[in-house]
Design goal:
Elements (H helix, E strand, L loop, with lengths): L1 E4 L5 H11 L4 H12 L2 E9 L2 E10 L6 E9 L8 H15 L4 E5 L2 H4 L6 H4 L11 E5 L23
Parallel strand pairs: 4-5
Antiparallel strand pairs: 1-2, 2-3, 3-4, 5-6
Helix pairs in contact: 1-2
């Protein structure tokens, strides 16, 4: 498996991957719109046998400090349960640290994302339409995120998701 930055030649395969992994095409369209809007910051693929087997995207957020949102992440059905998503997420977090970002937010399953250090407690002080136990944050510099006063919003492309 090769983990690498997404290239324009990967765009159709990444779109098909997300469309196959989610119930609707909303996440596939989200990735396209984040790219088109210039809000995609980190976009990585897992390539296996010359094909895109997984993808993760980190996009710019509006926050009181430099922050990214992690979403979406997908792995093709034949390649699941092989830690591909985890390796993509970890590689993306490493790139975010190297890029000087202070924090990352994710809206997802606490049991899964806590393994990377995300916690609802770290996101609790922020105003967000997604506030609650599924909105989690991770500080990338080892210091607490400056939550007060603070509002966080995902890139505008997320506004169309149900």
């Amino acid at each position: 498996m090769i983990l690498r930055p997404e290239t324009p030649s990967d765009f159709p395969a990444v779109h098909r991957l997300h469309a196959a992994c989610f119930e609707t095409g909303a996440e596939a369209d989200l990735v396209d719109r984040l790219r088109d809007d210039g809000d995609a910051v980190i976009s990585l693929v897992a390539e296996i046998e010359g094909a895109v087997a997984g993808h993760v995207m980190f996009s710019r957020m509006r926050a009181p400090f430099p922050a990214l949102g992690l979403a979406p992440v997908s792995v093709a059905a034949p390649w699941r349960r092989r830690a591909i998503a985890a390796r993509l997420i970890e590689a993306g977090l490493d790139r975010a640290r190297e890029g000087g970002w202070r924090g990352v937010f994710v809206l997802g399953d606490p049991a899964y994302y806590s393994r990377f250090g995300f916690s609802a407690e770290a996101a609790a002080g922020f105003e967000s339409p997604y506030a609650g136990r599924y909105l989690m944050a991770l500080s990338l510099d080892g210091e607490a995120l400056p939550a007060a006063p603070g509002r966080v919003d995902y890139a505008p492309a997320f506004d169309g998701l149900a």
